[in-house]
Amino acid sequence: MQIVNTSGVSRLTKFFTTPQKPPQVLVEKIFSLISPRSQALCNFLDAPELDPLLNHPSRSGEKLRIIYRNYATLYFVFVVDSSESELGVLDLIQVFVEALDRAFQNVCELDLVFNFDDAHHILSEVVQGGIVLETSVDEIQAAVQQASQARQKSFSSANPLALGSGNKGSRGGGIQTPFGWFAGRFSGSGTR
Amino acid sequence: MATNMRGLTQFIADIRGARVRELEEKRINKEMANIRKKFKDGNLDGYQKKKYVAKIIFTYILGYKVDVGHMEAVNLISSPKYSEKQIGYLAVTLLMHENSDLLRLVVNSIRKDLDENNEISNCLALHAIANVGSNEMAEALAEDVHRLLISPTSQNFVRKKAALTLLRMYRKHPDVIPAAEWALRIVAIMDDPDLGVVVSVTSLIMALAQDHPEAYAVCYQKAVDRLHRLVVDHEYSAQYAYYRVPTPWLQVKLFRLLQYYPPTEDPTLRSVICNVIQTVMNNSAETSRNVQHNNAQNAVLFEAIALAIHLDTNSNLVTNATVLLARFISSKETNVRYLGLDTMAHLAGRTDSLDPIKKHQGTIILSLRDKDISVRRRALDLLFSMCDVDNSEVIVGELLRYLKIADYALREEMVLKIAILTEKYASSYKWYVDTILELIAAAGDHVGEEVWYRVIQIVTNTEDLQAYAARVTLEYLKTPTAHESLVKVGGYILGEYGHLVANEPGSSPIEQFQILHTKSQFCLAATRALLLSTYIKWVNVFPEIKHHLLNVFDRYRHVLDVDLQQRACEYYALASRPEEDELLQNVCEEIPPFPPRESTLINRLNKKLGDTENKRTWIHGGKEVNLERELTQRLNKKALPAEPVLAATAGAADTSNEIMDSLAGLDLTSPSNDRPVATDQSSIFAQLSKPINPAAPRLTTGPNIDRWFEKLTYSADGVLYEDVQIQIGIKSRYQGHLGQLAIYMGNKVSVPLTSFTAMVHVSDPDALSASFAKLPPSTIAPRTQTQFLLQVECKKFFSTPPSISISFLAGAQQSVTLQLPVLITKFFEHVSLGAADFFERWKLIGGPPRESQLIFLIALAEEGGLDLQKYRQVIGGHRLNLLDGIDPNPNNLIGAGILHTSVDGKVGCLLRFEPNQEAKLCRITVRSTSEDVAMEVQKLISKTLTRPPP
After folding, report:
1. Cβ–Cβ contacts within 10 Å for residue B280, how many?
2. Contact between A85 and B303 using a beta-carbon 8 Å cutoff
3. Considering the domain A2-144, what is its CATH architecture?
4. Chain B, 210-229: which have a CB under 8 Å from a chain A CB?
5. Using one digit for the tens of pLDDT, what is the confidence trace for B723-739?
6. d(Cα B558, Cα B545) in Å, to the nearest integer?
């Protein structure tokens, strides 16, 4: 499972099996496979190329498939074997995005950067160990909120004097990161 | 929380601010150095540790290698503060993989968190196991996780995670989970009211049921029931409706689960399933504008169609599905086209008749030119599956044409598939050779060794083909760009059969030699070696070009390649022997036909398709391929512990034997490649393909239970079972070979019995069938009684009564298994006979073996006399007509009845029952046209009437 932006920078990567190669290699490979595909093409792609990278036994006949979805500047990519339903995974991506959206109130790429731990936490409420855990957005939201309350409680008990403890959604907690600056960074990073 | 740590936020902002990669690296290196130093100094409080570990995680996410912080993460896990614990767990799951040694250190912390009375900590721990759980963790923690899953006090969100964590453990280390033992308890959770829990537990069951189909058989019924409730009854909570489709994930999983089992024989279940599938198909008729809605709906639909295909390819459902699929493959939506083709390939792989699919052949061939490679791949698979003798020329021709413009990624697979199809469905040898040579010429580099081995096997074993093959090969070799594979084929075929065409214009020995030899300089050593062998064969048959050939050998005696050099020397010596020497002739004897053997091509394709944890229920290829694969899988499963040899022969060839195998050839008597063992296999398959009958659980025992059962053997109504919680009563009615049992299930306690499951086990389904008229309800309200009907049909003689297993949750899991009072005598009908008739038939049947007789101690009435009334009641209760006035002794009883069976017809049965007051003994004699029936009736009656030992 990974989220990668349109310029190939990884925003969130999660492996449920131990990959053979360093994650970055894999991310680049997947990105090179999906980025040339236009919007009109389907969201599925057979990916025999990934077998060796993911330590996937190719004899098994369980062909790996990439299932991805593009939201604004982000690609959400799942690599699954044939035991999953393709459309089901697409639905799941939608659920995940909706859950992110609820948690961050109008999610954008920046949220995933600054609140990487939250993003991972939300993902862990949707998919656990590579298997779908929960598909109801409400349930996911409830679980996320519960966890964040617990966190705030433990935080404020530890730091009674801290201001703005756990003020979620403030996007960077005091450090302003205007969007223009953010976009600028990407034009700069294009040379990489 | 990232936003709570100013240092971290600053760090992230700094990195984002770095305009070039070098600056970013510099910043990170600086930070890492700082962190290393801090960690080394030690003495950090929890907050600092958390902050630094969070920075390390962020660095890791950016794709840098990190080598510090593992120990600190381990420490954080045992922190009492949630925020620290959470970062610790995040670090452990991200930075460590399952084989990491450090994971040993966290096992104890995880156990503590699992045992803690705090759900959020439970969840963190479960989640960590689910992501990085190792064998050791599985061993140490499986029990704890299972406890969390089944404990009635666990919150739903804990149970969900526990189910998936258990799944992970099972995948890693199946031995630690006593899957069969936990089966009932786990399956019971499928009835949970919380759909989230059901989704997770279904995933778990899917994995367990594949390995333990018998133990988990009851999940079939549960899955059907749940689907019915979701799809037909619309029974689900609003939050699980995903764009108006009730929890598509669960539906997909349940449909998939049902495909793991052989199609059910139970007519009730079957009709429920059909109803569900039909509803799903009807729902899909209305498409909406909403993409998400369509997606979800189609996800369910495709899985439902797959199940319909699995159940019965000839059903109406599948016919309807084919129409739907035809619409899908020409849809504008790429995803739908893709899945339509995929599912149609599934259908083609299973169905008896390809005709409905062939109607769309044109569309499918067009899909080969789809702009999306994913769709093209599926179209290729489908064409491969739908090919048969009739359309093979068209399809193979189309594939060949497409091959020339196909993506490189696709070519090798295509070549393999074309080669297989050509061989399998060749209508003439000529067509076969033409096609394969065209294939080799067109695809060149993508032709695996197997393909050309195979051509040679076939040509060698088919005499009619040899001259033609030599001629055509020669033609191909004349083109300037002949591929190396073609040179190999040419070298071999011309060496063997070149002399057959030597008299034709343009094919004289010298021309053959020149054509072949001009190619040799562009070839690899292995090919040249093959050509040398060709030349030595020619020395034998074409003496006129011997000096050219000797020349070649002579030159090759000096090449650097050892193999070539040796060959050249040996061949040179051989060719230089005197004319009358017979050695050369003997060496160059024509190759004998290859022994029949399985095609290596198919082996090669199958090798990619061994079975794994999550099996696919079908593969591409014709129907036989799928059947055979199922057989192999089952054989493998059965044979693995005891006879690995059998598994090996049934499975794919060992790699090291590959080449030997490929040279070993195959049966060429018929082009359609019938395996000689086919008959054997199909009979084994027929045996194996019987539905899996779950082994009946052990019967619950108790003195009362026996008494109740005994009573019911000769009466139609009564109590079958009773304890403090439940009471089970039976009312039965029989007519001919059919019977109906009404089972009354009473809940005596003040809480509902949930996850109620009833399953009937029949030891020999060919003799007796038993099925519920409709699925029993899953909940029984407090202090109420519910009734369900069981239909039974006697097909042949049977002696073991069916049993019913009932399980439910009332606090804990309870289950009882009871014999049902369905005995052979229940299917008797009365018959009236006069004395003359009776004795005539009695004599006609004669003595043993069609007579069964026993003298036994007879049960007496309380005052010690004969209890005639009881005897009459029992014998009558076994549905024999008591005939009075036939025996002069009024104490003796005479009975007659006819057994009705639907398959074996009717069987008459006569009885004499002679109790003796003085001896307190009784002689029972039963005569019947069937020995089994006589014996059984005698046993049943004497058993009930035997005096219990004092």
Report:
1. 24
2. yes
3. 2-Layer Sandwich (3.30)
4. none
5. 888 888 989 888 888 88
6. 21
